[in-house]
Design goal:
Blueprint: H1 3-13, E1 19-23, H2 29-37, E2 42-45, H3 48-57, E3 63-66, H4 75-78, E4 84-88, H5 91-103, E5 108-114, H6 127-138, E6 145-152, H7 160-179, E7 185-191, H8 198-203, E8 208-211, H9 213-216
Parallel strand pairs: 1-2, 1-8, 2-3, 3-4, 4-5, 5-6, 6-7
Bound molecules: pyridoxal-5'-phosphate.
């Protein structure tokens, strides 16, 4: 695996405005350092303990992205340093993030995760739940949280038409959210696309892709 080369190859395919998050879950510190040395600054992890350990070991100008399901009792460990939480999937989680952000005297930036895939197992809001949570946010319930946009994961399939439909749905909700901008909402991030579907995601308007295996190699 030539990490530096993989990063260059990916960057060549991205529009200027698209942020590449290097998903480094399960990978050892040395490989993250290699990506860092090649200029990569955005890293994504899906486990709190693994992220905090890597945060402690690596340079402090890294932007850490939480992309996995987040338990409320673990928010406190991320609160001091997290750059962006992509996986906000409940009002209760949002309340806890708000509480911990206040404690650390900061604003924590978040994306709302939308359920777009066919699989039952994937987390996220549906359209009605999105409307409900947006109403609460606009009512000023979470002053220490800033909503930057939406995140979603498409169905794991070879059916490009299906993936495109799902990304298009997410893009539609994103445009809707953009129009409802307010004090605690400034929707400018649309996080969609992974190693197997980022080309389709970019075509549908993604401006943040989360790439693991195409940078670091397959996970065990
Ligand atoms: C693991 C993961 C990725 C990256 O997956 P790859 O297929 O390795 O690129 C992206 N997003 C989320 C939410 C993940 O859990």
């Amino acid at each position: 695996m030539n990490i530096a080369k993989n990063l260059i190859t990916l960057k060549e395919q991205l529009p200027e405005t698209c942020t590449l998050v290097a998903v480094s879950k399960t990978k050892p510190i040395e490989l993250l350092q290699e990506a860092y040395d090649a200029g990569q600054r955005h890293f994504g992890e899906n486990k709190v303990q693994e992220m905090t350990a890597k945060h402690e070991a690596l340079p402090k100008d890294i932007h850490w992205h939480m992309i996995g399901h987040l338990q409320r009792n673990k928010v406190k460990y991320l609160a001091p340093f997290i750059y962006l939480i992509h996986s906000v999937d409940s009002e209760r989680l949002l309340r806890e993030i708000n509480k911990q952000a206040k404690k650390h005297d900061r604003v924590i930036h978040c994306l709302l995760q939308m359920h777009i895939a066919q699989e039952e197992s994937k987390f996220g809001f549906d359209e009605n739940e999105l409307d409900d949570v947006i109403a609460l946010i606009k009512a000023g319930e979470f002053p220490a949280v800033q909503i930057d946009g939406l995140m979603g994961m498409a169905t794991f399939t070879d059916d490009e038409e299906k993936i495109t439909d799902e990304f298009r749905q997410l893009r539609y909700w994103f445009e809707k959210l953009r129009k409802s901008a307010g004090a605690d909402i400034d929707a400018h991030v649309l996080s969609m696309g992974m190693s197997n579907d980022y080309v389709l995601a970019i075509r549908e308007g993604s401006n943040m892709i989360r790439i693991g295996s195409s940078i670091f190699g397959a996970r065990n």
